[in-house]
Every structure is written in structure tokens, then in C-alpha cells.
Amino acid sequence: MSAAQMTAMRAEKDRFFKTHPQSPLSEPQQALFTHLEYYPHNPALDLTVTVERFADDDVMTIETTTGEIRRYRRYGRFAFDVDGETVQLTIYETPHGYFLPFTDANANKETYGGGRYLDPEMIGENTFAVDFNVAYNPYCAYDEPSVLASREGREPVQWSCPLTPFENRLKVAIRAGEKLPVGEWVNSRQE
């Protein structure tokens, strides 16, 4: 994706968050929302990868932020280089397509601690387009205090997001895609 296409896509996502009734933000958040934070477009992290397939029956469970257990099929693993270091990630298959949750060295500093997500696109036999520039936060990133409160029995949870499996927790920084939300709107979750 070009830098211009990325800019247009990000502006459209900001409009959705600000105005759409299905935005993950509460009404008070929408009223104060200005924009999401992103790393600059990084063409080096717009990849075409070939995966090493797992067995078709290689299924694992992944816990969500609410303690729910979900089952995912481990589709395949790929390797790539970041800042001179080779790392590996696993792509999962769901009934809705392919799913790539990951955390990086900037988790809880510049990126959401629970991980960011990608929806890799299969473009050939065992070949995927994996563009970290479109890495996004799960909706739990915008409502985390509600998630934590629900675990303490204080209020219902709005979102239940898969946590990143250990095999997809990187020790390198992925400086592409969405960053931690910042701004006055972040702290105005309550309706």
C-alpha cells in the first residue's frame, strides 16, 4: 500500500471512530476524539511472505481479555528481518479468514500491551501479503479500564479480545501501524 493510500485509509478510520454509531468509543470519547496515533508509513515492513505450513489438525486455544477461550488453527509460520534480526510469527486461520496477533518490544510503551492485529491476505499458495503498516489495536485498547473492572466484578465488559500467544511475542520493535491511543478522549470513557 502506498503512503497516500495509507493516509486516506487512516483518515477514514478516524472518521469512523469519531462519527459512526458502531465506533468502539463511548459517546464522551467520540465528542473529544481527534485522531488515532500511528507510526510513519514504513515500506520495509510491507511484506510478501511464504509460510511453512503446520498440520491441518494443529489447533490451539487462545484466551481473551475476558477469560473466554477461543480455538484457532495454526496455519503456518514465516520468518522476516527487522533491524537486522530474523524473527518468526505464526498466522492463524479462523472461520472469517487469517489472523495475525503480535506484540513487539514497544508493547506498553508505544504500542498496546495486549498486542496488535493484522489480517494477512493470501495471495498465492502459502504466500501472504503482511503489511505491518495496517497493524491495528483491538477494540479493547480503547476500553481497557472496563475490561479490568469487569474482572473485579464491577461492570460488564464491552469487548473480548484475543491475547497474543507466546509464539507471537517479539523482542524487536515493529515501528509500523497503530500506536497506543493518546489524548483527552482516552480518559473520558464513562458515559
Topology:
Layout (H helix, E strand, L loop, with lengths): L2 H17 L7 H6 L13 E5 L1 E2 L5 E5 L5 E14 L2 E10 L2 E6 L13 E3 L2 E4 L2 E5 L12 H8 L40
Antiparallel strand pairs: 1-9, 2-4, 3-4, 4-5, 5-6, 6-7, 8-9
% residues in beta strands: 25-35%
Which structural class best describes the helix and strand composition? Answer: alpha+beta
Q: Which value, in Å, is the CA radius of gyration?
A: 17 Å
> Helical percent range?
10-25%
User: What is the number of helices?
Assistant: 3
Can you describe what's shown?
With 191 residues, this protein is of the alpha+beta class. The chain has one domain (42-179). The protein is built from 3 helices and 9 strands, in the order ααβββββββββα. It has helices at 3-19, 27-32, 144-151; strands spanning 46-50, 52-53, 59-63, 69-82, 85-94, 97-102, 116-118, 121-124, 127-131. β8 and β9 form a beta hairpin. The protein is globular. Residues 146-157 have low confidence and may be disordered.
At a glance:
With 191 residues, this protein is of the alpha+beta class.
Keywords:
globular, three-stranded antiparallel β-sheet, 3 helices, 191 residues, 28% strand, six-stranded antiparallel β-sheet, alpha+beta
